[in-house]
């Protein structure tokens, strides 16, 4: 850990498969951020169980994600990559922070209301406590910045509120984290409903391209992507949302500017265009998938990384936890 660098914290839930939208919007950013910050990246399996999971699947998805991050360029030497449940301080701090969080404010959280509506048969305490666990994640590491999407903004605000509340009740204990709202180069939309953001949990999986999709699947999905009336291949999100989305994807995955991308398809038909976009994406995914498979096959390597990650995370986390325990009056041995 370099003292001079700021601490950055982020996590993903090992729930659904990630899409190319997550790759562009999140993973790629993490890869770029890892040299400028002391980064902690975790797989939030404790958050995942707030909705029912199939145990074997949860375990496998967790490992898949770790391998995927490494395959995408997260360097476990440069940052701390670990599984949340491997570091017991998360649950412990969450408990303490619960006593600084009001039931009413948790009931008002947008995501809690949404998820309660979607999982009406399982509105468990964990679902309501989700933001407090997330606050614990962040605050344990004296985090300076948290790169978050807009959907997580409210959670970050609560983490800040809880930190300030605790600091005011005692003496400054937690760093109050800032959100890092990255400008995403391109917003990647659903291939079948280009007005919507591509989602890992869309109803129709043919609208989303997953990082785990093989070449044929990728190409088939792009072939079926909706285009717009007219036959010109132009970037015009207002009038040609389907074509514009495909052009954005092409531009991001080929590294070409939007102008170049449009020139590549001047005078061409939709069929050729869609095939070309599919190929560029499949070409980019192939080496990532190969690296991921290789990492997954080497259990010892993976376990060593996770062990070291959990140890380094625990070291930092326990320092904060012990300060908290002291302030709240726990007798420590
Ligand atoms: N709730 C986040 C999501 O679903 C995942 C997450 C858990 C997280 N803990 C975090 C993100 C801490 C940032 C910081 O995307």
What can you see in these coordinates?
The protein has 333 residues and is mainly α. Helices cover 54% and strands 7% of the residues. It has helices at residues 20-33, 45-48, 55-72, 89-98, 103-107, 110-118, 125-140, 153-169, 215-223, 241-254, 258-264, 270-297, 299-328; strands at residues 7-12, 38-43, 80-83, 145-147, 178-180. The model has no long low-confidence stretch (mean pLDDT 94). The structure holds tryptophan.
Question: What's the SSE pattern?
Answer: EHEHHEHHHHEHEHHHHH
Gyration radius (Cα, Å) is 22 Å
Side-by-side strand order of the widest sheet: 1-2-3
Strand segment count? 5
Bound molecules: tryptophan
How many strands, which pairing sense, and closed or not: the largest β-sheet? 3 strands, parallel
What is the rounded distance between the termini?
A: 28 Å
Catalogue the unreliable spans. Answer: none
**What percent of the residues sit in helical stretches (DSSP H or I)?**
40-55%
**How many helices does DSSP assign?**
13
Q: What percent strand?
A: 5-15%
- Overall outline: globular
What's the rounded overall pLDDT mean?
94
State the oligomer: single chain
Summing up helix and strand content along with how strands pair, one would put the structural category as: mainly alpha
